[in-house]
Amino acid sequence: MLGICRGRRKFLAASLTVLFVPAITWIYLFAGSFEDGKPVSLSPLESQAHSPRYAASSQRERESLEVRMREVEEENRALRKQLSLAQSRSPSHHHGNHSKTYSMEEGTGDSESLRAGIVAGNSSECGQQPAVEKCETIHVAIVCAGYNASRDVVTLVKSVLFHRRNPLHFHLIADAIAKQILATLFQTWMVPAVRIDFYDADELKSEVSWIPNKHYSGIYGLMKLVLTKTLPSNLERVIVLDTDITFATDIAELWAVFHKFKGQQVLGLVENQSDWYLGNLWKNHRPWPALGRGYNTGVILLLLDKLRKMKWEQMWRLTAERELMSMLSTSLADQDIFNAVIKQNPFLVYQLPCFWNVQLSDHTRSEQCYRDVSDLKVIHWNSPKKLRVKNKHVEFFRNLYLTFLEYDGNLLRRELFGCPSETDVNSENLQKQLSELDEDDLCYEFRRERFTVHRTHLYFLHYEYEPASDNTDVTLVAQLSMDRLQMLEAICKHWEGPISLALYLSDAEAQQFLRYAQGSEVLMSRHNVGYHIVYKEGQFYPVNLLRNVAMKHISTPYMFLSDIDFLPMYGLYEYLRKSVIQLDLANTKKALIVPAFETLRYRLSFPKSKAELLSMLDMGTLFTFRYHVWTKGHAPTNFAKWRTATTPYRVEWEADFEPYVVVRKDCPEYDRRFVGFGWNKVAHIMELDAQEYEFTVLPNAYMIHMPHAPSFDITKFRSNKQYRICLKTLKEEFQQDMSRHYGFAALKYLTAENNS
């Protein structure tokens, strides 16, 4: 180490000599300016400067200095030659963990002043930074596991997409949960010039599971160590990001920094901005070894091809094994091991300016990374407190984060002009279907909605479900918008089984819902409720799309197709599970009808039994559902028979019948052409009948519709004549499709419609 320091001192001294000696000499000889048009004498004795007595000696001194100057120039030429030879020599390539040979240009030194000098050097714009090609693809790797991380990564992606001008290729190391969520999200997001590849994080667990880790990220917090093995062998470089990162600039600027790497530099990192690795945070604090303050791994530039040649896998494993003998476990996951490797091999690192990773944990020096808003590049919420972290400018940072959190993701579906995109079959099919529609058709917007792809985020909150051992479990399925959130707690109190909900929200409303749910003890105590966000787009409420999303993502063999405004009777969940067995739903095509009632009272003493419900029905506190405005919708249930029924009974389909039913999960989907108000459930029940489902009314089951203000869609239906005309047209087209699909058996629907 002493030899290295001496070598560096010689290098620095020689550099200073080359740079400063000629300058000082020339200044001394000729820059001594002129006073009153006369040259200033080189003699220090001003009073004798112009004396004839000293003229000859002054001339001799001048000649002597000129000779010395020429000698110095000769020495400088020799020094320059030496330096050029030293710089042209190839650095020694040491792959082992104990190599410490490096040059100043190859990485960070082990003193504070040298690190500061390198930061200044990295920030310098003296040399023209190579531009990123217009259509060059930027590769980004992110480790993402679980429900919360899948939600957090969306904000990161939004911030990157907002600023980007290049094609992007995201490499997501994800567990099964994150893959399901993010694959659906990106598939329905349909952002041009963005490619997504997934890598199974669960398959990588064996690579790092031998490392004890105390960090809250768990085993997934170690997986950045194995990216050289995980990512494609032909991928040369990648930007690696934590999920709690927010970009405030074009990621291409960071990608361009790869061009600054020299020699054996293979890791681009920002210095850690806390005192963690200095070991002075508390008494007996013993961090992993690090170079000075160490480096933060929230943002990493990896030269994968060179790392592989250096045998990175062997390097980090040997280092981890050695340090774990004394440290026993990591405290900061992969960051500890990266720093231990860098401590032994400083030449590996290129230190990024700290504005590429402004770390907002408590007690950091992050404020030194920026003087103005324009200095900010990347913000890293690397404290467990996240947005509650203490920082002088935290309000500004929080507002920037919230901007992307609530930003309409649909606006990021913009083309990169001049850059060819990969062929997307789904996008091509969509464009073809839309091109076949007549834009002059007065019902064009209705027809278009059927083909609209809505961005969908599955399992927005944590979800857990334990399958029932008897295979009789039933999921309640419903859909809602922001104005029905108040029903969630009540439904959860009435139904203890699993629930699948599709919520139609904007990005901002999704965050309001998140805050609402996290503030509710009732909702937070329930982990068997799947919340699936379908983001708003277009002018209609896509009611049947929402139902289909909720139906598709159930984990049980049966489902109860309900609506959010209904409260099921207490105990209905267990009653339905018994009915499934009793009526052999597993082996027969049955639709079990739960009779529907309604109240006009906002405060209702909910009936705890059928007898109590019948009493309230007789007193006028309750009514059969839509008795006053749409009798046909539920009349076939035969409420008169239900009053005295003790066993299930079969009923026949009739026109406009729309009961709430329990069916197997393999039942047909709802028809997407019906949006907003009207015929959305009627069409589905008609399809069930066409497929020869048997409608069976349950004698001891009931549900009650709670009052609410009229929806925007029913208001449009009632006030807009064209809306009603288009609905009638869609009904006729649906019936024609039924006839083509089911043939002669479907004629009864046309006849029934004409007679109704």
UniProtKB/TrEMBL annotation:
Topological relation to the membrane, as annotated: Single-pass type II membrane protein
InterPro entries, per the entry: Glyco_trans_8, Nucleotide-diphossugar_trans, Xyl/GlcA_transferase
This protein's record includes keyword Cell cycle: no
Keywords assigned: Glycoprotein, Glycosyltransferase, Golgi apparatus, Membrane, Multifunctional enzyme, Signal-anchor, Transferase, Transmembrane, Transmembrane helix
Disordered: annotated segments: 43-62, 80-109
Gene Ontology cellular-component terms listed: Golgi membrane
Subcellular locations according to the entry: Golgi apparatus membrane
Main location: Golgi
Coiled-coil portions: none
Membrane-crossing residue ranges in chain numbering: 12-31
Pfam family, one: Glyco_transf_8
Pathway noted in the entry: Protein modification; protein glycosylation
Statement: the UniProt record of this protein carries the keyword Cell membrane: no
Catalytic activity: 3-O-[beta-D-GlcA-(1->3)-beta-D-Xyl-(1->4)-Rib-ol-P-Rib-ol-P-3-beta-D-GalNAc-(1->3)-beta-D-GlcNAc-(1->4)-(O-6-P-alpha-D-Man)]-Thr-[protein] + UDP-alpha-D-xylose = 3-O-[alpha-D-Xyl-(1->3)-beta-D-GlcA-(1->4)-beta-D-Xyl-(1->4)-Rib-ol-P-Rib-ol-P-3-beta-D-GalNAc-(1->3)-beta-D-GlcNAc-(1->4)-(O-6-P-alpha-D-Man)]-Thr-[protein] + UDP + H(+); 3-O-{beta-D-GlcA-(1->[3)-alpha-D-Xyl-(1->3)-beta-D-GlcA-(1->](n)-4)-beta-D-Xyl-(1->4)-Rib-ol-P-Rib-ol-P-3-beta-D-GalNAc-(1->3)-beta-D-GlcNAc-(1->4)-O-6-P-alpha-D-Man}-L-Thr-[protein] + UDP-alpha-D-xylose = 3-O-{(1->[3)-alpha-D-Xyl-(1->3)-beta-D-GlcA-(1->](n+1)-4)-beta-D-Xyl-(1->4)-Rib-ol-P-Rib-ol-P-3-beta-D-GalNAc-(1->3)-beta-D-GlcNAc-(1->4)-O-6-P-alpha-D-Man}-L-Thr-[protein] + UDP + H(+); 3-O-{(1->[3)-alpha-D-Xyl-(1->3)-beta-D-GlcA-(1->](n)-4)-beta-D-Xyl-(1->4)-Rib-ol-P-Rib-ol-P-3-beta-D-GalNAc-(1->3)-beta-D-GlcNAc-(1->4)-O-6-P-alpha-D-Man}-L-Thr-[protein] + UDP-alpha-D-glucuronate = 3-O-{beta-D-GlcA-(1->[3)-alpha-D-Xyl-(1->3)-beta-D-GlcA-(1->](n)-4)-beta-D-Xyl-(1->4)-Rib-ol-P-Rib-ol-P-3-beta-D-GalNAc-(1->3)-beta-D-GlcNAc-(1->4)-O-6-P-alpha-D-Man}-L-Thr-[protein] + UDP + H(+)
Gene Ontology BP term (one): protein O-linked glycosylation via mannose
Gene Ontology molecular function: glucuronosyltransferase activity; xylosyltransferase activity
Family that this chain belongs to: In the N-terminal section; belongs to the glycosyltransferase 8 family.
Protein name as it appears in the record: LARG1 glucuronyltransferase
Name of the gene this protein is made from: Large1
